Amino acid sequence: MKSSRSKNRQEGRLDPCIWMQAGVVRRKSCKNNYDCSVCRFDRIMQRTADGNNKLIEAGEAPRGKRSRIVSWKDKLSVLPKWKRPCVHHLKGRIDFRACTNQYSCGSCDFDQCFDEQYSVYALVKPVDVLDVKGFKIPQGYYLHRGHTWARIEEGSSVRIGIDDFASRLLGPLDRIEAPLMGKEIEQDSPDITVFRGEHHARMLSPVSGVVTATNPKLRAEGIQANADPFSEGWLMTVHASDLRKDLKGLMISSETEDFIGEQADRLYQVIEEVAGPLTADGGNLGNDIYGNMPQLGWDRLARLFLRT
Fold first, then answer.
1. What is the pTM of this model?
2. 61 with 67: CB under 8 angstroms?
């Protein structure tokens, strides 16, 4: 299913923007991994194309430098059916495949099938991972203060998981339960439940929306979230209902670094209060903090750090 464009990425060459591939603009590279929903250039171009269409429908002729701008979908739709490239080919995910649905991806069986497979199996590993006082923070992920993360994928699709701090704080999990497909979740609601032995804890959803996929492995092997929390250990994907609003309540980049640093300091303080200063020597706390120091109290840790 790979296309030759993956070779370009390995060689460091920039990928051509869809608007360029359609012939609407002469030269433009994509720097957003073909996630048009976060691209300012795409928004401006689409708004201009829509404006030109409205003028034409009203019997007026568009004027100025941007008068010739049309939607990339309209530009490609005039090609013979067998020459119209599928969106997934334009994004470099597959070899050439013709679009047979006039770029109406929402009603395309191939698109739905491909997205399901791509969503589950084509996870992108974090390119750059920071270490803050022993805890990992992947770049490009949004973090909730309840230690769940959100990664924006295609459109309003968001992948959700548990961060490294929470997975190491609670230690190896027996299972994790997330809402099933089709269920609605709300930002800041305790929609996720993690289990370890006789203990369980609720965790807060980072965004609001409808669940579109869940990771079945975690119901039987919650430890997967501990082993690889930012890729294979994902919990669910959600079609966000108001992503722009939800992102205002999340942290990213330097905000995340500061927050995890503060949380690490708070954890050392709790350890000193319970087990004495010699335990919190500033070294690596390991991957099972609660298991090594059960005297910290499961419920107390959940209350202090998971905010539930």
1. 0.62
2. yes
| 303 DSSP assignment | I
Q: List the beta bridge partners of residue 200.
A: 195
Is 110 within 8 Å of 21 (Cβ atoms)? no
Pairing state of beta strands 148-152 and 209-214?
A: unpaired
Of the pLDDT bands very low, low, confident and very high (cuts 50, 70, 90), residue 127 is low
**Which string of b and e fits 95-123 if b means at least 16 CB within 10 Å?**
eeeebebebebeebeebeebbeebbeeee
Nearest of 51, 79, 78 to residue 67 by alpha carbon: 51
CA dihedral of 41, 150, 220, 168, whole degrees rounded to 10: 140
Cα 305 to Cα 302: distance, rounded to the nearest angstrom: 6
For residue 36 the two structure tokens come to: 């048009």
pLDDT of residue 125: 53
Determine the Cα–Cα distance for residues 60 and 50; give it in Å rounded to an integer.
14
